[in-house]
Amino acid sequence: MSDIEWKPIKSYSDIRFELYEGIAKITINRPQVRNAFTPVTVAEMSEAFRICRERSDIAVVVLTGEGDKAFCSGGDMHFKGRGGYVGPDGVPRLNVLDVQKQIRCLPKPVIAMVNGYAIGGGNVLATVCDLTIASENAIFGQTGPKVGSFDAGLGASYLASIVGQKKAREIWFLCRQYSAAEALEMGLVNKVVPFKELEATTVEWARRMQQYSPLALRFLKFGLNAELDGQLGLQQFAGDMTMLYYMTDEAQEGGKAFLEKRAPDFSKSPRLP
Ligand code: S0N
């Protein structure tokens, strides 16, 4: 897709996890089923996102699918059991919900690089990413009511906050497919480019954000989330404020005074208007 030389971070069975100059790329690598996910695929994605969170040399994360046919076609129907998708341990799970939350809470921008079909749970994954860049051949849609599933969580409510209530109901109730141009029109994607330019454009967007203040990007992401996420959004936002507070002399003085068994001296703390 481009001549960027991605270097493996860790090897997995169902995904590729690679790095290029501070940009991590997670590729669902099951093209034979249009990059549908199983509990194993999702567990691997979850670990990769956890690593992206922990490693300070990773600034931006890109999520994509292998090949030129699909980003992700949702849950793999071959693994659909009663109560969820069944992995090697025989336990039914809907563990993609955890990955949706990880993407939303990751204190770094996540770009969906949509290289083909983004259908069902795959469409939800693209929706929850911060930014979406699609190739001209990308197709978006939901199939839930047709195939016996649904995502009434972020897959519906967050979708509605992006495309509006009427459009979200149309997407879910009618199970139609939408072209990249239609997705751009409804605000579901940020940019549409020819397939051969997809990766280079995505990396260009990532590199631009890499140059900017990580804390500013982080606070903007969590501020935008907080409006929709209620107390959990507030928890995330407030947690970041605590992190920032711990970087001040004022917060350091409190802890230091306790350990030195003296009264804290906050007299030098600014009381700005
Ligand atoms: C993606 C589509 C439109 C592509 O069509 P195309 O290009 O004509 O290819 P096909 O010939 O249809 O497919 C090629 C091969 O790939 C297999 N395949 C495709 N998608 C899947 C899939 N999802 N599961 C298993 N196999 C798949 C085809 O069978 C074919 O194989 P061969 O060559 O052997 O015949 C088209 O393929 C399509 O419509 N796919 C199905 C899309 C779909 O309905 N996905 C499931 C939607 N549901 C979910 O994602 C579940 C979400 C969910 O359960 C959930 C809800 C709430 C909270 C959590 C969860 C959770 O998932 O955990």
From TrEMBL:
Q: Where is this site: Important for catalysis?
A: Y85, Y246
Q: Which reaction does it catalyse?
A: 2-succinylbenzoyl-CoA + H(+) = 1,4-dihydroxy-2-naphthoyl-CoA + H2O
> What's the EC number here?
4.1.3.36
Essential cofactor(s): hydrogencarbonate
Question: Pfam families from the entry?
Answer: ECH_1
Give the binding site residues for hydrogencarbonate.
Q142, T143, G144
One Gene Ontology term of the molecular function aspect: 1,4-dihydroxy-2-naphthoyl-CoA synthase activity
Organism domain of life: Bacteria
- Statement: the UniProt record of this protein carries the keyword Lyase: yes
Q: In which pathway does it act?
A: Quinol/quinone metabolism; menaquinone biosynthesis; Quinol/quinone metabolism; 1,4-dihydroxy-2-naphthoate biosynthesis; 1,4-dihydroxy-2-naphthoate from chorismate: step 6/7
Q: Which UniProt keywords apply?
A: Lyase, Menaquinone biosynthesis
Residues at which substrate binds = R34, Y85, Y117, A118, I119, G120, G121, T143, S149, Y246, K261
The top EC class, named as a word, is lyase
Q: Does the keyword Magnesium apply?
A: no
Function noted in UniProt = Converts o-succinylbenzoyl-CoA (OSB-CoA) to 1,4-dihydroxy-2-naphthoyl-CoA (DHNA-CoA).
Q: Which PANTHER family match?
A: 1,4-DIHYDROXY-2-NAPHTHOYL-COA SYNTHASE, PEROXISOMAL, NUCLEOSIDE-DIPHOSPHATE-SUGAR EPIMERASE
Instruction: Give the UniProt family note.
Output: Belongs to the enoyl-CoA hydratase/isomerase family. MenB subfamily.
Protein name according to UniProt? 1,4-dihydroxy-2-naphthoyl-CoA synthase
Q: Which organism is it from?
A: Mesosutterella faecium
Name of the gene: menB
